[in-house]
Amino acid sequence: MTDTSGILDEALQRLHASGPERLGRLTNHGPMAVEALVRGGQGHTVHRWLDYYRAKLEDMPAPGTPVTDADWPTALGDPRRAADWIGYFERALAERPWREVLAAWWPVFLPGISGGSTHPVIRVGHAVRTLLGPGGETAPRVAELAHGLGYWAARHTPLPARTPVVLPSSAGAADALAAVERIPVQDGSLPDRFAQLTQVPVWPGSTPDPEAARARLADLVTAAVHRFASHGHGEPIMLVHAATAPNAVLRTLPALPRELWPASLDAAWAASAAVTAAYSPATPQTYREADAEAGRSTFDEVFARAAAHGDDHTIKFADTALDVGDRLARAAALRGVELNPPTL
């Protein structure tokens, strides 16, 4: 990705006047989508897309009482404190290097990775990728990390306790996702669905070293992207998060101390499995048309299709599929284009 024009920073500045959510609990996907568009070579579409998307946004909520180092536990997981939390991280990132702040809070936030329908960790993953990528540590990109961390703090919600289900030691990520038991009633909001979770396959079976954790996390992202091709019809918006949430964690690992990588894998697996249980359909579907198009298309062409389609989740899923990069990943991205209604 190159961003010599500053399109990404301009877009982030436009978006930072808006809150992290709208209509009570729907996520502001703007920062994640524009970062994906720029990274995928579609920077020329960003401001047109924002002109469409800004009608959905709400102003940043008014701050209340500042979050402090002394009382932050009382504000953790309180969505009414979103602006207070963003302000806290703006101050923290003005005083300390962003990697230091991220490393300090990452283990605090991991147990609440599924809060906000996993969107906060995804926003953080996009923010970290901008900071590590071309253009580096500009002020809008550091501010975006503050918004992402603040949103995660406000929506921090641990999953319910679940009974572990042992898998064969040889089980890979695809086998583990296939072993996830669907919730009894696939209806209602994501918190209502998560409340029905009673068990989770144990994967991986043993605590890996950091490098093995990174490799297994990459396998999980690949498996979740591939699975979307055949199972995305169950709920094509929500099931993308089974892949985009662990990919956000994977993108963040290079900025974290290696000793945090195994716990990051565990949290990413918990989130992916929970989304799979909540929305995965009972039976797969074929995807012949998407597969045929994937066979004759480059990933640049596939991502351009997603950008022209315009749906924020479709763009973000195609961005994660691009990271996987094989034909089945291209087919999965095209399934997203097929299954979700276009917005542009």
Overview in brief:
Helices cover about 55% and strands about 5% of the residues. It has 17 helices and four strands.
Task: Lay out the secondary structure.
Blueprint: H1 7-15, E1 21-22, E2 26-27, H2 30-39, H3 46-53, H4 72-75, H5 82-95, H6 98-109, H7 119-132, H8 139-155, E3 163-166, H9 173-178, H10 190-194, E4 199-202, H11 210-231, H12 241-252, H13 261-279, H14 288-295, H15 299-309, H16 312-324, H17 327-339
Parallel strand pairs: 3-4
Antiparallel strand pairs: 1-2
Portion in beta strands: under 5%
* Helical fraction: 55-70%
User: End-to-end span in angstroms?
Assistant: 24 Å
Q: How big is the Rg?
A: 19 Å
Number of strands: 4
What's the shape?
globular
pLDDT < 50 stretches: none
What's the number of helices?
17
User: Largest sheet, if any?
Assistant: 2 strands, antiparallel
Class from secondary-structure proportions: mainly alpha
Strand order of the largest sheet: 1-2
| Average residue pLDDT | 96
Order of helices and strands: HEEHHHHHHHEHHEHHHHHHH
Q: What are its keywords?
A:
single chain, 344 residues, mainly alpha, two-stranded antiparallel ribbon, two-stranded parallel sheet, 17 helices, globular
